[in-house]
Design goal:
Layout lengths: L11 H8 L13 H22 L13 E5 L7 H6 L3 E6 L2 H13 L5 E4 L9 E7 L8 H10 L1 E12 L3 H12 L17 H10 L2 E12 L3 E5 L5 E8 L1
Parallel strand pairs: 1-2, 1-4, 2-3, 4-5
Antiparallel strand pairs: 5-8, 6-7, 6-8
Helix pairs in contact: 5-7
Amino acid sequence: MAKARHATTIDPTEAEHFGALAAEWWDPKGSSAMLHKLNPVRLRYLRDRINAHWGLDPRVLKPLAGKSAIDVGCGAGLMSEPLARLGAAVTGIDAAAENIAVARQHAAGQCMSINYVERDIADFSGQFDLVCSMEVIEHVTSPGAFLSALGSRLAPGGLMILSTPNRTGLSRLAMITLGEGLGAIPRGTHDWNKFLTPDELEAFAQAAGLKVLDRQGISFSVSAGFQLSGDMSLNYLMTLARD
């Protein structure tokens, strides 16, 4: 008997858009330059949340040793590879075949073993200690269904970490009017109407049987660049666990 397929969360137009950018994903001056600038801040937050959740010494070099992690909407692996370096057994999943091909090639060049899969998370099995999805939920067809699918992949006692832009006047100005208008972000990357406020994301989380453990903003200044902040008006990170 064939396995029942869940409703997809993939927007084919979005997958095509990001797949077309695959070749430049690892170029810090290319079309994904903004993600390269965001990544250190996201990793700092992730490490802090990992330490807090599992009571780890911040001096430990591989805090995810013995744990599994999935990077949902992994692109070409900008988050998957650091997770592997932190000791996790990593699965990276993405809707664009072009991204998965580049991710596999780059990981091989780094002598890293990461399980990259072209798939919709709504049609994926298995559970993981750490579920990450960075700048993805604003690109799916249904945030509620997507978050429910993420929650189904979270192992008991596990941790989920998301990041996404807030739907504010500042995010429209910074990311679309200026970012896309001036070419710092590829044109057509964002639909401001699909951005979620922290309260909206928390409501989707609660509906999916998840509880919010922490949320923190990512702010930007010309002098300091991106930094963790109490100001969530531009972009924010959220940590969740099973309720």
